[in-house]
Amino acid sequence: MSKGFNWYHFSSPQTFYPLAGKMIPWFWALAALFGIAGLIVGFLIAPTDAQQGEGYRIIFLHVPASWMSMFIYLVMAFWAALGLAFNFRLSAMMAQALAPTGALFAFLSLWTGALWGKPMWGAWWVWDARLTSELILLFLYVGFIALQASIDDPRRADKAGAILALVGVVNVPIIYFSVKWWNTLHQGSTVNIAKSSMAKVMLVGMLLCALACWMYAIAVALMRVRKIVLERERHTEWVKAELAQEK
Amino acid sequence: MLNAVFSLIARDLRLGMRRQADIASVLFFFIIVVSLFPLGIGPEPDQLRRLAPGILWVAALLATMLSLPRLFADDHRDGTLEQLALSPQPLGLIVLGKVAAHWLVSGLPLTLLAPVLGLQFDLSSEALQALTLSLLIGTPALSGIGAIGAALTLGVRGGGVLLSLLILPLYIPVLIFGAGAVEATVTGVGAQAHLSLLGALTLAGVFFAPWPTAAALRIALE
């Protein structure tokens, strides 16, 4: 390592565990900071939308949740591929730890979308291309989690999950474009969100909230990966020592 | 190398013929599911004609789903799969042979049966042609993509339900273009574009799916 920093050092669960423990409070603090700033901008500074009134303010959660749900799937597939290619135990654990958070964001995005859709479009659900592909993304997350949960041998679960995540990531653009095309053919049910040029302050609020969601996702994933490390390495000496210390 | 594939297909077909009940039950599942829809939504011909492409395609998806768990399970149980994995032929090619055999005993009969069921829905002859053609082009993709799920869930508890969770989302593009081809024919747009895209999906699916399937099989055999 020319930079004098050995990444491989932290790819072992034993060294990563305390490092993650030290990082978690920082990411929580950043999440809180960005979250508060985003909410202040979103609720107090951003003006009322001319067309949609106060109801539009749900985008400060809705759009970040949608972004994160897609981004986390990519990150998950990246870790899964790394684990499959180089047999890093830790990266497979990262993929496993990210999946529930990604599924949560996909669900949140659908839920807030429904809450937004009811006053704006007059319907909880429309078969819009974006909604439909978000729903399919949630299905992909659920499949990944279900597959990992039903294989008892963790090594096999990691590898099988990694293959599924990679197949999924290749399919996501195909699914997205087919749904989009399907949707444009059925013009009757299409509802386009009026994308008026968004005021700059709204964009700032949205970006702050997205950063908050991002930091939250990292913090939660690190907490989850620590638990996974403890569970999988529970027979090793260092985990026993660690647990004895915590008692 | 191709000889090995062909002899594998012949072997799987012979095994399939000796277990005709398995093939027949999948076909009857298809028939029953399709026949349930008019009972559920009412017998108005106009409505049925509009819903027919979707219903037939979804039923074909589910019927394929039903036959997939057996794709590798029997060979896995009696050790044949390990022997196949040890053979000098690439495992991906062997998977391709098994996918072809699976299509011949599930996708092809479904395709042949579909126009008859389409008559129940009062489809025009052009629509029936488009339906048969779209199933003929699209069902190999179902077998190919399904093989990935079958390999991933091999020997896993609750495999059948899990398989549908994993694979049905990946089937969505095939469903959209397959059913869309019939609908485009009915509305007079022409099915050409849909069928071309469906063909592309099938080629890509059948070409690429054996790799992840082979990787998943090796994991299952570890």
Automatic annotation (TrEMBL), chain A:
Q: Which GO terms describe its cellular component?
A: plasma membrane
Q: Which UniProt keywords apply?
A: Cell inner membrane, Cell membrane, Cytochrome c-type biogenesis, Membrane, Transmembrane, Transmembrane helix, Transport
Single biological process term from Gene Ontology: cytochrome complex assembly
Q: Which Pfam families match?
A: Cytochrom_C_asm
Q: Which InterPro entries match?
A: Cyt_c_assembly, Cyt_c_biogenesis_CcmC, Cyt_c_biogenesis_CcsA/CcmC
Name where it's found.
Cell inner membrane; Membrane
A GO molecular-function term, please? heme transmembrane transporter activity
Q: What is its main location?
A: membrane
Annotated ranges, domain Cytochrome c assembly protein:
31-186
Membrane topology, from the record: Multi-pass membrane protein
Q: Does the keyword Membrane apply?
A: yes
Residue spans crossing the bilayer: 26-46, 66-86, 98-117, 129-149, 161-182, 202-225
The UniProt family comment states:
Belongs to the CcmC/CycZ/HelC family.
Cross-referenced NCBIfam families: ccmC (TIGR01191)
Q: What is this protein called?
A: Heme exporter protein C
Identify the species of origin.
Propionivibrio dicarboxylicus
- Show the taxonomic lineage: Bacteria, Pseudomonadati, Pseudomonadota, Betaproteobacteria, Rhodocyclales
Automatic annotation (TrEMBL), chain B:
Q: Which first-to-last residue range defines the signal peptide?
A: none
The lineage's top-level taxon is Bacteria
Q: Which Pfam families match?
A: CcmB (PF03379)
Which InterPro entries does the entry link to?
Cyt_c_biogenesis_CcmB (IPR003544), Cyt_c_CcmB_bac (IPR026031)
Q: Does the keyword Chloroplast apply?
A: no
Does the keyword Cell membrane belong to this entry?
yes
Protein localization: Cell inner membrane
Q: How does it sit in the membrane?
A: Multi-pass membrane protein
Q: What is its main location?
A: membrane
Species: Propionivibrio dicarboxylicus
The UniProt function text for this chain reads: Required for the export of heme to the periplasm for the biogenesis of c-type cytochromes.
Q: Where are the transmembrane segments?
A: 21-42, 54-72, 93-118, 130-154, 161-182, 194-221
Q: Name one GO molecular function term.
A: heme transmembrane transporter activity
* Family according to the record: Belongs to the CcmB/CycW/HelB family.
Its BP terms in the Gene Ontology are: cytochrome c biosynthetic process; cytochrome complex assembly
Protein's name in the database: Heme exporter protein B
GO terms for cellular component: plasma membrane
UniProt keyword list: Cell inner membrane, Cell membrane, Cytochrome c-type biogenesis, Membrane, Transmembrane, Transmembrane helix, Transport
